[in-house]
């Protein structure tokens, strides 16, 4: 066996592949700059916003009507069952891996029949986020496209899905103040999508009251961090969608007495907390028409709301999640299994099909939307962006 004679190790492997054009196609690698170019075009028009929201609407409807397959979520870091160790990136570092696909349909094109694996990470000692989306063909199981998004598409689809749910469950026409809990990158994207949604509805931008994320051992009142977010992160941003919030005092600091925050009818919680970030006394005394969208509890053990709000008997909220099965192990409602047994929790995909009368009733109720993110969201945003890359 000396010399340079080939051992033909790939002979049977290559012979087993069906000789079609898709198998021979090269992998398309999409850079972050190309992705940002697509997002710029989408965010520039109301039609682009509609496409983003529609991709998320389809994602949730598929979860509720059996039109998709969601694989178990993998979470690295953020100790808590079943994870036992921190990542070397730091104590708060977390990487999430999600895979899913829509039910195959004979009428689908090759571009539609895909499955997507998303890897997204952040936190710890590293600035910013990391990640990519891998798009595979369902027909050949070979990789078609790599979206090197550095986590941005996860931020976009999360913010879009939250705004989709909030606008369904809350009457934006009556919203004069919005509460934002958290000052991280997701807070920026939430405000960008809210900016576009209020404009799409022909409404003026409301006042936003920003509350910091509370950490164990930290002082509760942290005005410096929030003022940096308001004055530097938003006020001096190169993105006009950010600066528009900072103009005219639309962004303001949560005060210890909480009086102005209690006037918020729409609140988004966006922290990585493992303890409650809000208390019942932070909310309006009359919870009629008040809505909370909770984003941060995306791993086992995390939470942003106290039991006194989620499982309140005095003011029982209408509870909506992205996936009943997934919400039992991650998300805000994981801490309240009795609510699932009692049939108190509904999926967003089912609520999206509500008629006008039911939607009106939902908007008059006290509602909580709990999202930990589902893989079909990644499928939707990946298909949308990949299809618009020149």
How would you sum up this structure, described in words?
The protein is α/β, with parallel strands linked by helices and 390 residues long. It has 2 domains: 139 residues, ornithine cyclodeaminase, domain 1 (2-Layer Sandwich); 215 residues, 3-Layer(aba) Sandwich (Rossmann fold), CATH 3.40.50.720. The chain contains 13 helices and 15 strands. The model has no long low-confidence stretch (mean pLDDT 91).
Mean pLDDT: 91
Question: Beta-strand percentage?
Answer: 15-25%
Question: Nearest-angstrom radius of gyration?
Answer: 22 Å
CATH topology of the largest domain: Rossmann fold
Poorly predicted segments: none
- Taken together, the total number of domains comes to 2
Which CATH-level-2 architecture of the largest domain?
3-Layer(aba) Sandwich
Protein name: Ornithine cyclodeaminase
Family: Belongs to the ornithine cyclodeaminase/mu-crystallin family.
Pfam family, one: OCD_Mu_crystall
Compact summary:
With 390 residues, the protein is an alpha/beta fold. The chain is built from 13 helices and 15 strands.
């Amino acid at each position: 066996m000396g010399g340079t004679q080939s051992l033909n190790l790939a002979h049977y492997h290559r012979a087993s592949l069906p000789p079609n054009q898709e198998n021979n196609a090269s992998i398309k690698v999409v850079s972050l700059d190309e992705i940002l170019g697509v997002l710029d075009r989408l965010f520039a028009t109301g039609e682009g916003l509609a496409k983003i929201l529609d991709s998320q609407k389809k994602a949730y409807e598929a979860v509720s009507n059996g039109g998709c397959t969601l694989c178990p979520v993998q979470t690295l870091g953020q100790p808590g069952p079943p994870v036992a160790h921190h990542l070397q990136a730091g104590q708060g570092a977390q990487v999430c891996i999600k895979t899913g696909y829509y039910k195959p349909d004979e009428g689908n094109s090759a571009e539609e029949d895909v499955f997507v694996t998303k890897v997204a990470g952040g936190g710890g000692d590293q600035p910013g986020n990391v990640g990519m989306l891998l798009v595979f063909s369902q027909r050949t199981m070979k990789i078609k496209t790599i979206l090197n998004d550095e986590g941005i598409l996860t931020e976009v689809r999360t913010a879009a899905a939250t705004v989709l749910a909030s606008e369904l469950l809350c009457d934006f026409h009556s919203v004069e103040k919005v509460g934002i809990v958290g000052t991280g990158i997701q807070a920026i994207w939430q405000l960008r999508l809210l900016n576009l949604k209020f404009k799409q509805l022909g409404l003026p931008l409301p006042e936003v009251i920003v509350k910091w994320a509370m950490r164990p051992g930290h002082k509760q009142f942290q005005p410096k961090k929030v003022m940096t977010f308001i004055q530097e992160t938003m006020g001096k941003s190169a993105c006009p969608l950010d600066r528009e919030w900072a103009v005219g005092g639309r962004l303001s600091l949560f005060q210890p007495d909480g009086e102005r925050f209690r006037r918020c009818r729409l609140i988004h919680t966006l922290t990585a907390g493992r303890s409650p970030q809000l208390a019942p006394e932070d909310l309006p005394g009359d919870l009629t028409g008040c809505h909370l969208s909770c984003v941060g509890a995306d791993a086992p053990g995390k939470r942003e709301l106290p039991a006194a709000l989620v499982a309140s008997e005095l003011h029982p909220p209408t509870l909506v999640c992205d996936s009943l099965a997934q919400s039992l192990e991650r998300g805000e409602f994981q801490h309240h299994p009795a609510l699932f047994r009692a049939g108190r929790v509904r999926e967003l995909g089912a609520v999206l099909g509500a008629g006008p009368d039911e939607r009106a009733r939902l908007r008059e109720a006290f509602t909580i939307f709990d999202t930990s993110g589902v893989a079909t969201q990644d499928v939707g945003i990946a298909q949308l962006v990949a299809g618009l890359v020149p």
